[in-house]
Amino acid sequence: MRRDYEQYQLHLIAAEYRAKGYTVDLEASVPESNGRFDALARSPEGAVVIVELVNAQRETASDARLEILRQAASFFPNASVDLRYLDPGRSAFAVHTQEDRETEQAQGDPSERLNTLLKMRVPKQSGGSRISLARLYLGLWALHVATLREFAAMAASEPDRSLAVLDQYDLLLKQDLLVAPEQTEDSAQLDLHELHQIATALLQGASVTSMEARELRTHIRSVRAQIRRWKRMTVAAVTQKLGGEGGE
Questions:
Q1: How far does the chain reach from its first CA to its final CA, in angstroms?
Q2: Do 25 and 13 meet the contact criterion of CB atoms below 8 Å apart?
Q3: How far is 213 from 144, CA to CA, in rounded Å?
Q4: CA pair distance 132, 166, nearest whole angstrom
Q5: CB-count exposure of residue 214 (10 Å: 0-12, 13-18, 19+)
Q6: In Å, how far from its chain's centre is CA 147?
Q7: Which of 12, 166, 201 minimizes the C-alpha distance to 92?
Q8: Distance between CA atoms of 219 and 122, rounded to whole angstroms?
Q9: pLDDT tens-digit map of 126-161
Q10: H helices of 31-62, where?
């Protein structure tokens, strides 16, 4: 879970800089070098910030990591360095992950929870104000995350509820349980990672557009349709198997 937590925090940090107008490259490399650091942020005015995570549960910065930072500093002499100290063991991420697992276990069958989520109506845009769009987007995102988590718990081989939702989604794609909507829907241009960045940017005070909200709704509709097909195919396969066993 430590790596998932680091990725989660890195996306939040990237969203923080993007909300300020920076462009952000994750896992950036120093030109003419094999060295990599966690992120590089550039402002429209040309300011450069090197972002590096420091994990309290790992060793302090190694000589190799320090050498990479020295290389970056020599290539970007006017850059500032943003060191972010992380302690996954004391994070809200770890606490809520455990609470989520306990709550889900108490609520019973993931199939029932998934059915409940699939019956819920996908919210539609009811206004064009900044607050209305933000409320809509975050509501859509919460519904989508809950649906993906329950589907992963039900369908994925060796499901791991401690994974962040982006990692659970990538696992579903890898196991061919889902197809990325941007690959099948003409109206879908953004992938789930980009939609997640918009959600985290909203929490940092950024705005969301009607187009971005429509993109998320398209993503939700596509994934829900795929899950329903999977459920029908699974039921049909089980019924066929039981029928075959009964005829023996």
A1: 47
A2: no
A3: 12
A4: 25
A5: middle
A6: 13
A7: 12
A8: 11
A9: 767 888 888 889 899 989 998 998 899 888 777 677
A10: none
DSSP β-bridge partners for residue 28: 37
Residues 6+ apart with CB under 8 A from 151: 114, 172, 177, 178, 227, 230
Q: Are 17 and 43 in contact (CB under 8 A)?
A: no
In the block, residue with structure tokens 């809509």: 136
User: Rounded distance, CA 199 to CA 137, Å?
Assistant: 7
The whole model's pTM is what? 0.58
Contact (Cβ atoms closer than 8 angstroms) between residue 215 and residue 209: no
Q: What angle do CA 6, 12, 16 make, to 5 degrees?
A: 140
Q: Which amino acid is residue 61, in one-letter code?
A: A
DSSP conformation letters of 173-220: HHTTS---HHHH-TT----HHHHHHHHHHHHTT----HHHHHHHHHHH
Gap between the Cα atoms of 231 and 111, Å rounded? 10
As a whole number of angstroms, the distance between CA 205 and CA 103 comes to: 30
CA distances from 80 to 139, 198, 207 (A): 36, 25, 27
Copy the structure tokens of residue 82. 């943003």
Q: What are phi and psi of 123, to 5 degrees?
A: -60, 145
Q: How far apart are CA 237 and CA 234, in angstroms?
A: 5
Question: Of 75 and 27, which is predicted with more confidence?
Answer: 27
The alpha carbons of the chain give a radius of gyration, in whole angstroms, of 21
**Closest listed residue to residue 88, CA positions, set 203, 169, 10, 28:** 10
